[in-house]
Specification:
It is a single chain. This protein is of the alpha/beta class. The protein folds into 4 domains: 37-257, Rossmann fold, CATH 3.40.50.300; 269-411, 3-Layer(aba) Sandwich (Rossmann fold); 414-519, no CATH class; 543-673, 2-Layer Sandwich (Beta-Lactamase). The protein is 57% helix and 14% strand. The chain contains 24 helices and 18 strands. β14 and β15 form a beta hairpin.
Length: 696
C-alpha cells in the first residue's frame, strides 16, 4: 500500500509539473495586468483600407453607448463629407478643434487639453496614424491618444492595417506604395479590444466606384493602383491575421493570469543587428513581427565602430534606434571594430537563440577588402545560435551600396586624401632627385622610403588615404625607378616578386596601422567616458549640500557634451518656477511650460524629440525609483543631435544626478525631522519643568 501510494503521489506530482506555468511568464502577466489598472481602455476599429466603414462603425457604437447613458464625446472625427457618416454625429458632444497656423494656412487638430479638462468616460479619436501640424505638442496623434489613456480616459480609435510599423514593408511589397504615416506595434499591446471592420474587396471597390471613399476625380486612379482586387485581398488577409494574433495573445495572458494550463511562451530570444542603413528599419520591423508571433523577447544591437559618421547618417541611426524602442525592443550598444565578434559576445551574454541580420549589400570588392561578409563570419562562429538573413528590395539594395561608399568616404575627409597624394608626390620627387644624383642608391632603398610614407599616412590620416598612398607609390616606384624606367614593364622575375610583395606589404601594414590607430582612439574614448562618469560620481558623492551637487552636475554635463544646462527642482509635487542659480541656460515662459510638462508626465520632450519639438532645448525628467525630483534641460552649442552613444552616456549622467538630488533631499528631510524631534523634546521638558514648579 505504501509503495502504491508513493507511486500515485509521484505520478500526480509529475502531472502537475507538466502543466505548471513558467513563473517568469506568470509574473510578467500579473505585472501587465496591474499596469492596465491605472490607465484607460483602448478599443481599435481596424480595417484593411480606407472606406470599409471604420468611422461609421465607431460612431454607430458611440450612439448606442450614448443612449445607455455613457458619457462619450467626439475628440476628433473626420467624416470626409459622407452624408451617412455626418448623420451619426448628430446628438453627440463634439470637442471644438484647436487651430494651428502653418505656412499661411489654418489647420485643425484635436484639442487634447480640452479633452483632459472635460474628462469624459469615452473619447472618440479618428485616424490614429495622423501626423499633427508643426507646433503641436506631439508629432503624432497616437501620442495624444497615449496621453489620454495615461490620464485614465477610455479611447476608441480607427486605423488601417497598413499603418502599423511591422506591416509597412509587407504593404509596400504588395502594393508598391510606401506608407509614410505609421504607428508603433506597441499600441497592439495597449489595445484592450480590436474590432475588425471587414468588407469584401468587391464590395469595397463598389463603394469606391459610387464615390463613397474618394472624390470622383481620384476614383479611377485609386481603383487602378492601391484598390486593385489582389491588393485588397492581401490586405484583408493581413487584417484578419493581425486580429487573430491579438486575440490569441489576449487568451494566453488570461490563461497565465488565471493559472490555466495551456501553451506557454517559448524560450526563444531574438537579437537583430542594426546600423545607420535605411535597410535597418525593415530588419527591426521583421524581428518585431517574428518576436510577436513567437511570444519571445527581443533586443536590438548597434555596434559602434571607429568610423566617423556624418550628421545625416547620425540622424538616420537615431531614427532607427527610436523605431526599435517604439516597437518595444531592448536597445544595446557596444563599441568595437570587429562586428561579428561583438555580436556573438552579446548573443552569448544575453542568452540569444536567434540572430537576425540583413543580406550583404556590399560589392565583391568591398567584401574581399573586409575579409568576407558579416553573414559568413556569423554562420561560421555562431554555434547553436540560429542565423536569419533578411533580404530587402532591389532598389533599396542599390541605394544601400551607394550610401555605403558615401559612408566610407566620410571616414576620411577629402583634405586627408589630398594630403596623402601630396606626401607621396613630394617623397617621389625627392627620391627621383637622389636616385639620379647618387648612382649607388638602388631602387630597393627608394621602395623602403615609399613604404615608410605609407605607414606614416596610415598612422595619422587613416585607412583610406593609406590605401591610396600604397597604390600610387607602387605605381610610381615601378614607373620611375625599376628597370626599364619610364615604363610599366618589369623584365626581371625578382623585380616582379619584389613589386608584388611591396604592394601587398604596403596595403597590409597600412591597414594594420590604421586599425591600431582606431583601437587607440576607441581606448582613449572609453577612458574619457569612464573618467567622466567617475568624476561625476565622485564630485556628487563628496558634495556637502544641494548647491554643490547641482553646480557639479551643470559643470560636468556642460563640459562633456559642450552644452548649456538648466536644472529646475521640484518641491511638494510642483516644479519651481526659477531654475537653480548654477544653470547656464536661460528659461523663457515657453521653455518652462515644456519643462513643466516633462515634470508632470515623467517623459523626455523638447528639441530632437517627437514631443514639443519646437523647444530650443531638450528636457529630461530627473527620475528616481520612487519619484521625479526635477527637470534638467540641455542645448548643445552646435545645435546638433547627440550621437546614440552620447545619449546613452547622458542618460547615465542624469540617473546619477537624480539619485544624488534625492539623497540630498532625504538628508534635508532627515535634518528637519531631527530638529522637530529635538524641538518636541525640549518643549516636553519645558512643560514638565513648569508643571513641576506649579505643583511645588
Amino acid at each position: 500500500m505504501c509503495c502504491c501510494s508513493t507511486w500515485r503521489w509521484m505520478e500526480y506530482n509529475n502531472g502537475m509539473d507538466e502543466y505548471r506555468p513558467d513563473p517568469d511568464a506568470l509574473l510578467k502577466a500579473i505585472q501587465k495586468d496591474e499596469s492596465r489598472q491605472g490607465r484607460g481602455k483602448l478599443k481599435i476599429f481596424l480595417g484593411m483600407a480606407a472606406g470599409v466603414g471604420k468611422t461609421y462603425a465607431m460612431l454607430d457604437n458611440a450612439r448606442q453607448q450614448k443612449a445607455e447613458g455613457v458619457d462619450i464625446v467626439v475628440g476628433y472625427v473626420e467624416t470626409h463629407r459622407r452624408v451617412e457618416t455626418d448623420a451619426l454625429l448628430e446628438g453627440l458632444e463634439v470637442i471644438p478643434r484647436r487651430t494651428v497656423e502653418y505656412r499661411g494656412a489654418v489647420l485643425e487638430e484635436m484639442d487634447t487639453d480640452s479633452i483632459l479638462t472635460r474628462k469624459p468616460e469615452i473619447v472618440l479619436v479618428d485616424e490614429l496614424a495622423h501626423t499633427n501640424a508643426l507646433g503641436s505638442r506631439h508629432l503624432k496623434r497616437y501620442q495624444d491618444v497615449i496621453e489620454l489613456l495615461e490620464a485614465g480616459l477610455n479611447v476608441w480609435t480607427t486605423v488601417n492595417v497598413q499603418h502599423f510599423d511591422s506591416r509597412a514593408d509587407a504593404v509596400r511589397q504588395i502594393t508598391g506604395i510606401t506608407i509614410h504615416e505609421t504607428v508603433p506595434d506597441s499600441l497592439l499591446d495597449l489595445a484592450d479590444e480590436i474590432e475588425l471592420i471587414d468588407l469584401s474587396p468587391a464590395d469595397l471597390r463598389k463603394r469606391l466606384a459610387e464615390g463613397k471613399v474618394y472624390t470622383p476625380e481620384r476614383v479611377e486612379t485609386a481603383a487602378n493602383n492601391f484598390f486593385r482586387v489582389g491588393n485588397l485581398t492581401a490586405l484583408r488577409e493581413m487584417a484578419l491575421r493581425l486580429t487573430a494574433e491579438h486575440v490569441d495573445h489576449k487568451l494566453q495572458d488570461y490563461m497565465q493570469l488565471k493559472q490555466i494550463a495551456g501553451p506557454w511562451k517559448s524560450g526563444e530570444r531574438l537579437m537583430v543587428a542594426v546600423g545607420p542603413s535605411p535597410f535597418s528599419e525593415r530588419l527591426i520591423r521583421w524581428t518585431r513581427r517574428m518576436a510577436y508571433n513567437l511570444e519571445a523577447s527581443w533586443l536590438v544591437v548597434y555596434i559602434e565602430t571607429s568610423a566617423v559618421l556624418t550628421s545625416e547618417v547620425k540622424e538616420r541611426l537615431a531614427n532607427n534606434i527610436a523605431l526599435a524602442r517604439s516597437l518595444g525592443g531592448e536597445v544595446v550598444t557596444v563599441r568595437g571594430d570587429d562586428i561579428a565578434t561583438s555580436l556573438l559576445r552579446i548573443a552569448h551574454q544575453r542568452n540569444v537563440t536567434q540572430i537576425v541580420i540583413g543580406k550583404p549589400q556590399h560589392t565583391p570588392l568591398q567584401t574581399a577588402l573586409r575579409g568576407g561578409s558579416l553573414v559568413d563570419k556569423l554562420i561560421r562562429s555562431s554555434g547553436d545560435i540560429d542565423i536569419y538573413v533578411v533580404t530587402g528590395d532591389e532598389n533599396a539594395s542599390e541605394q544601400h551600396v551607394w550610401r555605403a561608399f558615401s559612408t566610407f568616404e566620410s571616414h576620411s575627409q577629402r583634405s586627408q586624401y589630398l594630403i596623402a597624394l601630396f606626401a607621396v608626390a613630394s617623397v617621389t620627387v625627392v627620391d627621383l632627385f637622389l636616385f639620379d644624383t647618387f648612382p649607388w642608391l638602388g631602387y630597393q632603398a627608394v621602395g623602403l622610403t615609399e613604404l615608410l610614407v605609407v605607414l606614416l599616412i596610415a598612422a595619422y590620416l587613416g585607412r583610406g588615404p593609406a590605401l591610396l598612398a600604397a597604390a600610387l607609390s607602387a605605381v610610381s616606384w615601378n614607373f620611375l625607378f625599376i628597370e626599364p624606367r619610364l615604363t610599366f614593364t618589369i623584365t626581371h622575375l625578382q623585380d616582379v616578386i619584389l613589386f608584388i610583395l611591396y604592394f601587398a606589404i604596403a596595403i597590409f601594414t597600412g591597414n594594420l596601422t590604421a586599425r591600431i590607430r582606431a583601437q587607440e582612439r576607441q581606448t582613449r574614448y572609453n577612458a574619457e567616458r569612464t573618467s567622466a562618469l567617475y568624476t561625476l560620481a565622485h564630485e556628487t558623492a563628496t558634495a556637502v549640500n544641494m548647491d554643490d551637487v547641482l553646480k557639479t552636475a551643470v559643470t560636468q554635463i556642460g563640459a562633456v557634451f559642450d552644452a548649456t544646462v538648466v536644472v529646475i527642482l521640484g518641491q511638494e509635487n510642483q516644479l519651481l518656477r526659477q531654475p537653480h542659480p548654477s544653470s547656464t541656460l536661460s528659461l523663457s515662459d515657453k521653455e518652462y511650460s515644456v519643462a513643466q510638462w516633462v515634470y508632470e508626465r515623467g517623459k523626455l520632450a523638447g528639441r530632437f524629440t517627437e514631443t514639443l519639438s519646437q523647444a530650443s532645448a531638450q528636457y529630461h525628467p530627473l527620475q528616481t525609483p520612487t519619484r521625479t525630483v526635477g527637470v534638467i534641460g540641455i542645448r548643445t552649442r552646435r545645435d546638433e543631435r547627440l550621437s546614440f552613444d552620447q545619449e546613452v552616456l547622458l542618460t547615465t549622467f542624469i540617473s546619477q544626478i537624480a539619485l544624488a538630488i534625492e539623497r540630498e533631499m532625504l538628508d534635508e528631510a532627515a535634518e528637519q525631522t531631527a530638529m522637530l524631534r529635538e524641538s518636541e523634546r525640549l518643549y516636553t521638558t519645558l512643560l514638565n519643568s513648569i508643571s513641576h514648579e506649579l505643583r511645588t
